[in-house]
Amino acid sequence: MRKVLPAVPAVLAPLVGIALLATAGCGIRATTVPVDVGAAPSRVSCDTPAQPGGQSGEPGFPATVELVCGSQLVGVERIVPMPEKGTVRDPAVQAAQALLEALERTPNAEERDAGFSTGVPAGLTAGAPKPGDPAGTVRLSRKPEDLPPVALSQIVCTLASSETVSAGPGPVVLGGPDADPPRAWECTDAVRSRPESVPTLGEIVRPTATATATATATASPAS
User: Fold this and answer.
1) What is the side-by-side strand order in the sheet with 172-175?
2) CA atoms within 13 A on the CB side of 17
3) pTM: predicted TM-score of the whole model, two decimal places
4) What segment(s) does the record annotate as region Disordered (predicted)?
């Protein structure tokens, strides 16, 4: 025997029809199970806050410090104080050390609110080139290839934009504390947009004959 469904009261029939049409029009199946779609994706402004003209009256130089924001590198204009005088008197090495300290420093509250961070580890220092190194080489206290890729990208792009450290447009030549030959890295648009994908090993840079002769003469004792 065919089962007969109870009739819908005439008063409710129009309402039932409207509900069915609305559900069919949306293309969504009705469900009583709550769906958790997660929190809305967060967005960062990456707005670079204005920097003061100086810091506690200390001598410094204007520089663009590359920080991480939204998985990319974004340059922040700063007045970078020079480090205290040490054994290294080369102005380029002193400037490189000042930039490393600026990269290691945790961004201030305003910068953090805008989404800025840094991946450069604390304690990293810059040293003078070794005899035979190409001109402009910066020797780091750690091998560049042992650094996190994002940190290496920050260092390369920050040093590349510094007129005090870099002699001009072109690759940045970095070496480690050992006798391994220095290598060259370039700050390209690809590195800035995807700093985590920078090649950990740059191209080996061989010194020119002039640079080698100059380094040898400098290292030789005066007669």
Assistant:
1) 126-127, 138-140, 172-175, 183-185, 203-204
2) 7
3) 0.71
4) 107-143
